[in-house]
Amino acid sequence: MKKPKTVKRYCPYCKKHTEHKVSDVKTRGKRGALKEGQRRHQRRGGIKGYGGYPQPKMEKGKRYGAKTTKKTNLKYTCTVCKKAHSQRAGVRTKKLVIG
């Protein structure tokens, strides 16, 4: 999916349509230490060997019901007030190209 670098959108802070810069929100890294509840969940029997889950994880594909794409998470920054806001709902795409 191709998106332009700038888009004219409604800014909820300026309360009018202004030019916005489009950027992709990067996924954050995993947290280092697990929370106590998750560590307790893994300690209790029968769930070792499956990555901490009671059953094997689903494989990708139509038969298993796992998704093959991620939803886009775009951030729009107003060029007038410099405040950023995100879109309401993302669209499923395999690849996102901005520019």
Give an overview in words.
This protein has one helix at residues 36-43; strands at residues 2-3, 6-11, 16-24, 70-71, 74-78, 84-86, 92-93, 97-98. 8% of the residues lie in helices and 31% in strands. It starts with a strand and ends with a strand. The chain contains one helix and eight strands. The strands form three sheets. Strands 2-3-5-6 form a four-stranded antiparallel beta sheet, with no helix packed on it. The chain has a domain at 1-25 and 69-99: Nuclear Transport Factor 2, Chain: A (Roll). The chain is mainly beta and 99 residues long. Strand 2 and strand 3 form a beta hairpin.
Give descriptors for this structure.
4-stranded antiparallel sheet; Nuclear Transport Factor 2, Chain: A; mainly beta; 99 residues; 1 helix; two-stranded parallel sheet
Secondary structure elements and pairings:
Blueprint: E1 2-3, E2 6-11, E3 16-24, H1 36-43, E4 70-71, E5 74-78, E6 84-86, E7 92-93, E8 97-98
Parallel strand pairs: 1-8
Antiparallel strand pairs: 2-3, 3-5, 4-7, 5-6
Shape: elongated
Taking all Cα atoms into account, the compactness measure Rg is 20 Å
Largest sheet: 4 strands, antiparallel
DSSP summary: helix tally: 1
Order of secondary-structure elements = EEEHEEEEE
Q: Tell me, rounded to a whole number, the average pLDDT.
A: 81
CATH class descriptor name of the domain at 1-25 and 69-99 = Alpha Beta
CATH topology of the domain at 1-25 and 69-99: Nuclear Transport Factor 2, Chain: A
N-C termini distance: 11 Å
Structural class: mainly beta
